[in-house]
Amino acid sequence: MKRARPEDWYRVEKRSHDVTYICEPHIEEFYRCNMWHIRGRERDMLVDSGMGVVSLRDWVPLVTERDLTAVASHTHFDHIGCHHEFPDRCVHEAEAHILADPTNAATLADPYVTDEIFTRLPPLPYSSETYRLKRAPATRLLADGDMIDLGDRAFEVIHTPGHSPGGIALWEAATGILFSGDIVYDGPLIEDTYHADAEDYHRSMVRLYDLPVEIVHGGHFPSYGRARHRQIIKDWLDARERG
Predict the structure, then answer these.
(1) Metallo-beta-lactamase domain spans which residues (predicted)?
(2) Are residues 166 and 94 in contact, defined by beta-carbon separation less than 8 angstroms?
(3) Assuming Cys at both sites, which of 48, 161, 187, 231 could form a disulfide with 221, CB separation 3.0 to 4.6 Å?
């Protein structure tokens, strides 16, 4: 398999409300994390940081322009790979130990990280056999109801366990923007990780159903609006009720 050049590893797309989408296009879509950069008046925020196989700070200048808070929606390998590059790091308290010691087992890098998840391999010296995440101990622990303040905009932390114990979504009531992480997105949802919990997942979906979203930026797959948000959750809940 061919290797990508580091300058081609990331794709960056501007969205509305000073939100920028960042992804790693040479990873298969199912495994490809959506990273979200949000501009505020006093500081910026980055939701998730990809696999960490190519430096975000070196190749995405946007993330170095201003003070930035790096938030982990949860601590699976595809979401926290570059968190160590940022001095201000937030994670829910239930997964702080994983961010501080991100073993391949705890982050699901085992068994998912193989050459098969790529359409082009990362540049040398990357090797799937030696892939490891770097420690990135949190500088702030998050809990349900906390606020992340960027100066002129604020995001409420919604604890959404189910996919993992410390999963969170970030809700900006003023714009109706929800960064949902991996609890809900427009694609196959993962409910069978080693630390998933079916009852927690159900409670999180019920909680998010009535949120008056305008747009949902998930951890994977394309963004979507309110009608699709409610449909995804309704279909999920109906399927669980049918058993």
Answers:
(1) 32-220
(2) yes
(3) 187
Contacts of 29 by beta carbon, 8 Å cutoff, 6+ apart = 187, 220, 221
Cα distances (angstroms) measured from residue 41 to each of 65, 80, 122, 178, 181: 13, 25, 34, 19, 24
pLDDT at 243 over 80: no
Per-position b or e across 71-84, b if 16+ CB within 10 A of its CB: bbbbbbbbbbbbbb
Strand partners, 11: 23
Both tokens of 208, joined, read: 């998010």
The pLDDT value recorded for residue 169 is: 98
Q: What is the four-CA torsion angle of 19, 35, 224, 17, rounded to 10 degrees?
A: -10
Q: Round to whole Å and give the CA distance between 25 and 22.
A: 9
Which phi and psi angles does 171 have, rounded to 5°?
Answer: -120, 125
Query: What's the rounded Cα separation, in Å, for the pair 109 and 76?
Result: 7
User: Distances from the Cα of 30 to the Cαs of 45, 122, 210, 216, in angstroms?
Assistant: 24, 17, 27, 18
Tell me phi and psi for residue 87, to 5 degrees.
Answer: -75, -20
